[in-house]
Amino acid sequence: MKRRDFVKKGTLSSIAALIGTEVVFGSNMLKGYTPLALQDPDPFKLFNKHKDMVVLNDKPWNIESQAHLLDDNITPNASMFIRNNGLVPEDIDAKNWTLTIDGESVKNKKTYTLQELKSKFEQHTYQLTIECGGNGRAEFNPPAKGNQWTVGAVHCASWTGVRLRDVLQDAGIRNNAVYIGFHAVDKHLSLDPNKEPISRGCPMSKALQDETLLAFKMNGKDIPLIHGYPLRLVAGGWPASVSGKWVNRISIRNKVHDGTKMTGTAYRVPCEPVAPGAKVKDEDMCIIESMPVKSLITYPKSGAIIKKGKSLNIRGHAWAGELEVTKVEYSIDFGSTWKDCKLEAPANRLAWQHFSASVDLPKLGYYEVWARATDTKGNAQPMVLPGWNPKGYLNNACHRIAVKVS
Amino acid sequence: MNKESTFRKQVRRIYHLLMVLFGLFVVTGGSLIYYVNNPGAFDFKAKSEIASITPVEDEDRIENGIHVRTGLIDSEGLMVVVNNCTNCHSAKLVTQNRMTKEGWNTTIKWMQETQNLWDLGGNQEIIVNYLVTNYPPKAKGRRMTLTDIEWYELED
Q1: Measured between beta carbons, which residues in chain B are less than 8 angstroms from residue A301?
Q2: Which spans are transmembrane here (chain B) (predicted)?
């Protein structure tokens, strides 16, 4: 065999080994063309992300934002965090995309094309806060396993789609329906076709809310591939893992959905509080539903030096899962005293709210500006870490920025 | 006699014709099969390809104590970790986590039960020793001091 032929065969078979599937018509592949799966990945170009985004993991892709990148009222794609459990699907065919509604508790199993979904049901647009359940995991002590998110795994984009409720009702919901579970086309890391990287869902009460969408647009455009093109389930206020990407099937279940990442310790916290580092049995772990109250100072970027005598204008966003935020305060003395920020009402339910304040810093020196939000039930963010849990979820401790007066 | 020699001539001619046809068949069929397997073989412009193969640089290069390709710390057991722990997921999932011996063992068990990780045999001890030596937990308390602050003059 000629060396060149050998090299070529070798390349094709190693491509096959790498992407786990034979490259059909591989021998016809253009010279100099590298399949998308293998291109030297510049995630910032690949996903149109801001250069200051932080790559936590490149297989699977997990990329987080930073507080100062989230300053916009409606988060642009460039600043939206990326969370994947599996491999991003390729060759999405939106024209032939279908969504099937099935499950034990569906009256009539039905399949809709994307076009049917768009034309048959009324379309709605909402700004929805989506936060990763593990946002803030990096701070837990003892450390929790998983991607070490700091503060940037949250965004509030504008989503357009049809109500999941309308589609479920069109197929028909039996009286014994308990939960919905989504299925999607992303691939498991092991490339085992019998494994789903993630298949989560929510109780019927959440599935039937006005704001729970089957979305096909984000910020007025087709959803970017990395965020779920062509169809994404969007359930604001709940762990982002409920908002399944690349969805092609939704099952109406007669029990709590038991798909991948619904069971064991995934997206669950101890039903009863535990001491840091405690071992918790699977049966003592409860599914996370609404995310807790939280806020983020998005301006200025931490590290600002201001001249003495000048006041510091701060701003940011606050959200509270299913609830609304009633108050945001700031402190420049590590919580000894708090002052109110100006707080806006949400654009719609489950959208984050914007706050701002003019802060006076009396002396030269180092300060931290801390923000604290309170929800409609009177729950405020803790200044220290909230209850430790084995997987490091739900860290809603106050955000703070460092400031110097010179 | 004449008839016999004519007959023999004809037989020989047919025989030759058949041989030529068979030869043609073998050559065309053979090149067709070769072409299907090596579509570039008759593309004479592609000859320069041989020259363009660059020598593969050492993919397990170590710089400043770090295995460049994966970002893992160069230490005893490195290649066992590279070969067993970076097939399905990125090494970044390893380097951003910190666990005790028990924690790493539990994680391996979980990957074997749910993620198709193979039996590591004697390598498990090597891997776990590498991980607890290089990626042990750090005490963080209830709230860390802000670090790595990039100071800048705020203009407005």
Answers
A1: 152
A2: 14-36
| Cβ A381 vs Cβ A294: under 8 Å | yes
Classify domain A294-405 by CATH architecture. Answer: Sandwich (2.60)
Model pLDDT for residues A393-403, shown as the tens digit of each residue: 999 999 999 99
Q: What is the pLDDT of residues B39-88, one digit of tens each?
A: 545 554 444 444 555 556 788 999 999 999 999 999 999 999 999 999 98
CA distance B88 to chain A (A): 5
- The answer, yes or no, to whether the previous bond of A270 is cis (omega within 30 of 0) is no
Range of the domain at B25: 2-49
Multiple choice CATH, A68-287, 3.20.20.140, 3.40.50.2300, 3.90.420.10, 1.10.10.60: 3.90.420.10
Question: CA-CA distance, A394 to B33, in Å (whole number)?
Answer: 62
| DSSP secondary structure letter of residue A29 | P
Contact of A140 with chain B, judged by CB distance below 8 Å, is answered with: yes
The closest CB to that of A4, out of B37, B50, B97, belongs to B50
Give the whole-angstrom CA distance, residue A100 versus residue A251.
8
Residues 352-391 of chain A whose Cβ lies under 8 A from any Cβ of chain B? 368, 383-385
Structural domain includes residue B68: no
Provide the 10 A C-beta neighbour count for residue A319: 29
Residue A281 CA from chain centroid, whole number: 27
Nearest by CB: B90 against A58, A148, A302:
A58
CATH assignment of the domain containing B78: 1.10.760.10
Q: What's the ipTM? A: 0.84
The distance from CA A190 to its chain's CA centroid, rounded to whole angstroms, is 23
Q: Number of folded domains in chain B?
A: 2
